[in-house]
Design goal:
Layout: H1 2-20, H2 29-49, H3 55-76, H4 84-106
Length: 108
């Protein structure tokens, strides 16, 4: 169940981050409220996830998957350029999350 909470937290964080640009520096009311609500939901779900997952592992997955996904969202929906450097950086983040999870399995 902890991983369900974790992936819910990731989804909520992606919504919040995707709305960030629409807030125009938190000057637009409805996008700002939606963004803040999404982040509140994300942190609430993340706090539930860490009841069953080590906090370092949960945070690595949350931030790593969130970062990789938001780059993809930026490229596909927001029209941001995707570069070789971005792909290399995301690959390193994903590799780091995988290594942390492999190490977590070895610790048991």
């Amino acid at each position: 169940m902890a991983y369900v909470f974790l992936f819910g937290a990731i989804a909520a964080e992606l919504v919040g981050t995707s709305l960030m640009k629409a807030t125009e520096g938190f000057t637009r009311l409805w996008p700002t409220l939606a963004c803040l609500a999404a982040y509140a939901a994300s942190f609430t779900l993340l706090s539930q996830a860490v009841k069953g997952i080590q906090v370092g592992i949960a945070y690595a997955i949350w931030s790593g998957v969130g970062t990789a996904a938001i780059v993809a969202i930026g490229a596909t929906i927001l029209g941001e350029p995707i570069t070789t450097v971005k792909i290399a950086g995301i690959s390193l983040i994903i590799a780091g999350v995988v290594v942390l999870n492999l190490n977590n399995g070895a610790a048991h």
